[in-house]
Amino acid sequence: MAQFWNLAYSCFTFGKVDLVPTVEEYTALLRCPKVQVDKVYSKAASAPAFVKKLMSITRMSEQWVTARIQQKGDGRCILCVSLRDLIVAHPDTKRKFDVFALSSYGLVIFPKALRHIDEAVVDFFDRLDKGVTPVPTILVETFRSLSACRRASEGRFIGCAQLLLAWFHSHFWKVDKVSYRVFFNSYSSLKEIAAMSRRDDISEENWIALLRNLQEEDVEWRAHWFVPDEILYRCESFDWVPLLGIWGAAGYAPLLVLRQYRSRQLVPVKHRLAQSEFAYKEKNYNKKVQEISDAWKQTRRMKRLAVGPMTTLEYDGWLSKRVNDNIPESSLEDVRTMEEYFQVIPSELKIVKRDFEERNTELGKKIKQLEEEKMHLRLDVDVQKLEVKKLRKGKRKAEEDLDSLKTDYKKLRMSMGTAGLGKTSEQWRQEVQEEKAIVDQWEKRFHDA
């Protein structure tokens, strides 16, 4: 998103659309009390020492705090792991929450040093107990980080990325609006945004092409969770809204994005806006800080104006000439609808997944076929078992008949020998051999069977 940050106007310029997070939008997102709106944070020239602030927040000894402070770059920090261990072990429940909140500010909202909480974050957190609003401070560090990344064409964003993305998605996702929800005490816009479905499968190239050629009808100008009332548009002699952060200052022009308030868009006044940014390391920065602090004591607000067309002819003429130095101009040949940009070409992973599913289906069919064949084989085996059982039963019956035949034959011979029946022994021997031959033939037939 940093490449779409317009340095000349301190806003995002997507094609012919200007958008910027505003104080009112961030106040609604964070649900800050309105009584805090004008009580802004400013870096004190003579503030208590870093060690004293940490002692006050954690209620730990000076020795404990001093042992855990480190030098990181151009400033001092405390390790996040030290605060994590303190959250677990601290006997005071209220201090547990304070230390946890400090860790959240240092890791999520102002993540300057990896795995460390910067001294400036501790100073800011210490001032929150005095009722100052965190919104302008969060906004200005977001703007300054975007500008730094834009100038260098690279770098690590050290603003609150999660809050910025929540704001971004609110203006680009068409949702069903249920406006009365915002009046409920239990309503949380951040929880609702976190639960929204998002198109995370869109390639970076498609996003760049989409934002470069963005049309007015593609924008959700007023977020569904935002109910605008009055618009802060200037502070004292400034023609725009100056903002003080924890590491520097910058400003933005709310009149540039009146359509985000569902108001009629006029030509903005931005005198000296491009030169408003400065860091607290610069010479005589204390004087500038004091000037901005005094300006916030005399803020100027306006009611929403929604009469006639959303833009004036003067604004349309100004828009065509305004400076846009962030990215190449939009290409009319590449202009497509948002739905067309969101037609995603399958990634290699999706192609592999689809092939796997097809192969899985084929294997399922083969497994089913094998199971059917197995069932048929089981039936064939059962039939063969029955046939074998029948053959074995027949064999046993034939053996029993043969044994019975042998017994009868012996009895016959004995009775014939006893009776004599007028035959010679030679005749009897010959008849016995013939009968034996017959028996041998039956036995041979039985064994063959």
TrEMBL record:
Pfam families: DUF7745 (PF24924). Keywords: Coiled coil. Residues 1-323 form the DUF7745 domain. Signal peptide: none annotated. Residues 353-445 form a coiled coil. InterPro entries: DUF7745. The keyword NADP does not apply. This is DUF7745 domain-containing protein. The lineage of its organism: Eukaryota, Viridiplantae, Streptophyta, Embryophyta, Tracheophyta. The gene is LOC107958471.
